[in-house]
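Technical note accompanying the year-one report. For the benefit of new consortium partners, we illustrate the data format agreed upon in the data management plan: each record pairs a sequence with a structure-token string. No post-processing was applied to the example shown here.
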Amino acid sequence: MVKRRAVSRKDKDIQPANLPLLYQTLVPLSPEGQGALSFEDTRDYGFAAKANAIPLTADEFPMALKHYPIVFSSGKIPTPLALVGMQKDRNDFVNDDGTWREGAYVPAYLRRYPFAMVRESDTAERNILCADLSSTMFASGGTSERKIFADGKPSKLLNDILEFCNRYEVSLHRTRLMIEGAQKHDLIGPSTVSVSREGKTLKVEGFSVISEERLRDLSDKVLADFARRGVLNIFAAHHMSLMNFSSFGGAVA
């Protein structure tokens, strides 16, 4: 069982309606509320041990394609995902001691955790830095180098975290533009895969891929625009990554 820190009732009462995958809380960080906290970035990925798909940004496709099938979630707004397990509640890349499989790319979504940028309100444009305070990477006290606030101001550590989170938001924006372009031309469609495990054949479904056939049918003008914006390279990385289904004992149907 994954360990969690206790979170105050006050913090629980200000949670967003829908928390992101793997987050138990999301609390705005302030020197008044978290001035005594330190952050020990000793990565234990046990919190992701039951997640068989991890969100990706388009910028990560070239790194992720070497290790995972990259697919898209079903639904109104598809999300790129790295498939890290073929069975529900099982991540094949998290070892028993909480480490990630040696040599495999770790998605930025996991490296960003337990932090995230959250829109201040539905009508506001500003994002604020929040954190899942149930994470055991937070502790009271600690060395000055690990404090998230120093003298009532964000520490260098927290500023570095904020910079990483901001870069992640930029990547998310580029990813949304890619998705919008793919949806505009009806390129994303459902798919299935059959996986052989321990003498049994499992049918995995509920995900989508970019249709190579529909992509080939696009006009030269649209293809040129995709190429200019680097989208064709992203689609190519996605298609190459599907070969990784073979490492799970399957192939896309």
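Partners are asked to follow this layout when depositing records. Helices lie at 9-12, 31-34, 61-64, 108-112, 156-184, 212-216, 220-228, 231-241.
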